[in-house]
Amino acid sequence: MNRKGKSADDPVERFSRVIEQLVRRLRSVASVGGISPSVASALSRLEAEGPLRITELARAEGVSQPAMTQLVGRMENDGFVERTTPQGDRRGVLIAPTARGREVFSRRRARRSDYLHELLESLEPADRAAIEAALPALERLVSAAAQQPSLPMRGTATR
Hints:
mainly alpha, Arc Repressor Mutant, subunit A, two-stranded antiparallel sheet, 2 strands, about 5% strand
């Protein structure tokens, strides 16, 4: 039993463990360009959503603005992002991925996809079909999670 009284074979507990283990493995497999998970996450968001202000990126990534400012500074020094000025708003600054940032992100995604493809091919056809059948529900789960209010920022205390 865990601390909430749920057994290890509870479906939610099992799902949580499986996701944790898979994410951990995918992170290690996709370590392209020597970038940290936080850099990879920020690049992923910028790739998906387009250029963002540091405050928007910090909020979306669940970190403080000073922490994101530091991360963006490191990413800029490494050539992964650049600061741009939006037309009509010379005071605003947007963070956008550079060609190098997009290339590293693309290689990471390809490596993850290749690894997952190999894993799936190692399974029995019935297991592959079950995973494929679960994809729409998993996509809805991710969509529902995106609609949830943000969790407290990482690295900040909650009262």
